[in-house]
Each structure stands twice: as structure tokens, then as C-alpha cells.
Write a sequence for this structure.
């Protein structure tokens, strides 16, 4: 319910008929004289409608796969730009609101899309992006560990080294020397 109207559930004609049938069954039960089965039938029909809604919702991400890949590519570039702009130093990691606004999506849709496509939250996805960037930067011997840590928003070199080792299993220097 927190999606923008252009992000709302897209239904095929057949799916639209299924939803209408479910709604008509619920309306029919509400108009029927009440008996001991009324509540059970109304609840069952609402449950059926919700189950179809979940099916159609998940299908939506699958059938819009090409559009989703484009959005993920844009997200990737947006995060790269964020890292290289120096915003990490002053603003910390990007928020879902920042990404959604730049991609012209609602926050809820952006978060659902990212989780569906990557299995990760924005923070998890961003941390991996940050480590990819660190690895690339480490290949250039002109970049000091301190400069890389600063560029990637770490308050000091020690935190960067600990984080890098936690993610990769090696220190930044070990990584750098292993790539030669």
C-alpha cells in the first residue's frame, strides 16, 4: 500500500478476473443471510484473495525482470557515484530514501525490489559494493590504505582494516600483495 500508483500491482486480464471473482464471492457472502458458515466463508474468501495477491505480487517482479535489471544497474551506478563523490565522509551510507528518490521510486518498492533481486538489504548490498571499491582501489599502489579508508567513509584506518578483513578474510595489505 505504500507503493506509488505507477508501481502498483500489474495484473493480466485473467488475473483481474480472478480478483473480481474473489471480491464478488466476498460481496455475495456479505449479502447472504447470516448463518453459522458466513464468517468462515468470508474469511476463507479473503484469505484466497490475499493468497492470489501474493502470487501476483511475486510474479510481478519476475515478469518485469528486464526493467528490474535496469533499475539494479542504475542503483549500482548511483552507489558508485555516492562513494566517489565523498558523501560517505560527511553523510554516512546512503539511505533507501536517497536511492528511491534518485531512481524515482517509492522507498517501499525500492526496498522490495532490491531484496527480491539480490536477497540483501540496502546496507548489506552497499557494504559489498564498498568492499568491491576497496579492492579496486587497492590495486592502484598510489592509493594509501588511509586514503582508501577515508574515501570509503571509515573514520580511521583501523576500522577499515578490521572491516575489510572481516569481509574478505585478509587484511588490505595482504590483499594488495596477493594481487601482484
Amino acid at each position: 500500500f505504500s507503493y506509488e500508483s505507477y508501481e502498483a500491482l500489474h495484473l493480466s486480464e485473467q488475473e483481474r478476473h480472478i480478483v473480481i471473482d474473489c471480491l464478488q464471492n466476498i460481496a455475495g457472502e456479505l449479502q447472504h443471510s447470516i448463518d453459522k458458515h458466513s464468517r468462515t466463508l468470508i474469511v476463507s474468501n479473503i484469505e484466497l484473495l490475499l493468497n492470489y495477491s501474493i502470487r501476483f505480487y511475486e510474479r510481478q517482479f519476475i515478469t518485469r525482470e528486464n526493467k528490474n535489471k535496469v533499475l539494479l544497474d542504475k542503483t549500482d551506478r548511483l552507489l558508485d557515484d555516492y562513494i566517489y563523490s565523498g558523501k560517505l565522509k560527511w553523510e554516512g551510507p546512503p539511505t533507501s530514501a536517497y536511492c528511491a528518490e534518485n531512481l524515482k521510486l517509492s522507498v517501499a518498492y525500492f526496498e522490495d525490489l532490491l531484496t527480491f533481486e539480490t536477497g540483501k538489504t540496502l546496507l548489506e548490498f552497499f557494504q559489498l559494493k564498498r568492499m568491491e571499491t576497496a579492492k579496486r582501489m587497492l590495486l592502484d599502489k598510489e592509493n594509501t590504505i588511509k586514503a582508501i579508508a577515508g574515501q570509503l567513509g571509515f573514520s580511521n584506518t583501523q576500522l577499515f582494516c578490521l572491516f575489510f578483513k572481516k569481509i574478505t578474510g585478509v587484511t588490505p595489505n595482504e590483499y594488495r600483495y596477493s594481487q601482484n
The mean pLDDT is 88. Residues 49 and 138 are 53 Å apart (CA to CA).
